[in-house]
């Protein structure tokens, strides 16, 4: 009878374990040894991952998986992981040595756990993502420990999805704590709201939003939390595993080409419950860049001590361009394209009028220059070689076509600068030829000798905008007698895409009327002034100045200043 009761209790416990479907973050990736010690007297020379059961339920890990996208290890034994308990997962070859530290499961096809950076995720037997981590070498916060022999440990198990802020190198003298509580365990409450970083269209019917941390997938899946401009309705919102820091949106109609949309986000929260501040980003469909669409705008080829080269690009076209479609290179002594580097594996959209800066050390650029738009910095593993004396910067698209090219020389710097170290060369005009040495100048001293991510200190717009502005009549009388009651300001341009501001001044230079603000112009058309001021009051007789400022999306500008006489034939 006693044995029967025991069997029934065991069976009930077994059924209870299998009835519990694991929630996300129920079991955590708790410690990662990516670069084990080679000759340690304590820890074995084996990579490992420690799992921790942070839930009140027990789970059978049979058929659970650990993957890095390349290798996927499947647990092929029934192992009951009890609440508040650990288990070490490692390659089969390291199981015996690591079992001295606690419960250990050896598996085949163990994730590679690359030293510099990698991603790893834990899946249940039903392929549900339970936890995921994407680490890199900076998480150690210690150059000695990042070189090898030390594990990365999670600090606060109640804050499992905040990334680098909740992971550090082990503080245990052995180099790690497999099978035991982490040496850095403590409170690390997440009180920071998630941020919306960017958005891009993966095709005409899908847009991907990118956030700076993992989201609560239930809140992130509420389509009402997303609003798109231009009457586009969001039909579906799908948070994307394994990290849930991206959300795929499906609009109710295809996105148009050459159109910039605005996406607003509200009410979504991270997995700690912090709600995002209402945010908005631009989105659209990118196009393959063609020659001249993107130009080299600034280059630092002789960086300051402990600094890094950078190259700034400017989108002077009316196209949306993805950094993923661009490559940086140089030319070797034979004049051939050399050291080609892709600007990113992810879609970072460069909108018309945007700047982006490419470097191999974002931290150094931020420390040594004013960076007004940190999101416009792109870090690549290594920059092509750009020598201090002279060299060639080549920009290409994915078809191998040269988009822009600059053969620079340090002699282009301002002659009175004694030391060129830490001084960038800036393009003066986006629309003048790249190779014209007169179109380049040293960055200004008061700008810190460099302006990465924003308009150059030496910028000068091309005033040679093609078009004309005419006013008629030269004398007008707004007295409603049917004769010359309005001043007509006509315009004519060779192409659409121009915007204008028209301001009326009196003879003493005082502003009388802001007639047009950011008026979109066609190829030809007109505006009228009825002689009234900003308060819709009649103006007195006399001479007035009509200032028309015209600019295009590619940076060209021109001003027209014309005089007109206002007369009143009836007093």
Task: Write a structural description.
Residues 1-16 have low confidence and may be disordered. The longest helix is centred in the N-terminal third of the chain and has 18 residues, at 2-19. The strands form 10 sheets. The chain has a 6-stranded mixed beta sheet with strand order 8-7-2-1-11-12. Strands 27-26-21-20-30-31 form a 6-stranded mixed beta sheet, with no helix packed on it. A hairpin with a 4-residue loop joins strand 38 (542-552) and strand 39. With 571 residues, the protein is mainly beta.
SSE layout and pairing:
Elements: H1 2-19, E1 27-33, E2 48-53, E3 59-60, E4 65-67, E5 72-74, E6 80-81, E7 86-91, H2 95-98, E8 104-107, E9 117-123, E10 129-136, H3 143-146, E11 152-154, E12 167-169, E13 196-203, E14 206-211, H4 217-220, E15 226-228, E16 234-239, E17 246-251, E18 261-265, E19 279-283, E20 294-300, E21 310-315, E22 321-322, E23 326-331, E24 337-342, E25 349-350, E26 355-359, H5 362-368, E27 377-379, E28 390-397, E29 402-409, E30 425-427, E31 440-442, E32 468-472, E33 475-476, E34 487-492, E35 498-506, E36 511-521, E37 524-529, E38 542-552, E39 557-566
Parallel strand pairs: 7-8, 26-27, 33-39
Antiparallel strand pairs: 1-2, 1-11, 2-7, 3-6, 4-5, 4-9, 9-10, 11-12, 13-14, 14-17, 15-18, 16-17, 18-19, 20-21, 20-30, 21-26, 22-25, 23-24, 23-28, 28-29, 30-31, 32-34, 34-37, 35-36, 35-38, 38-39
Q: Rounded to an integer, what's the Rg over CA atoms?
A: 32 Å
Q: How do the strands of the widest beta sheet line up side by side?
A: 8-7-2-1-11-12
Major sheet: 6 strands, mixed
Estimate what percentage of residues fall within beta strands. 35-45%
User: Unreliable runs, pLDDT <50, ≥5 residues?
Assistant: 1-16
- Overall SS class: mainly beta
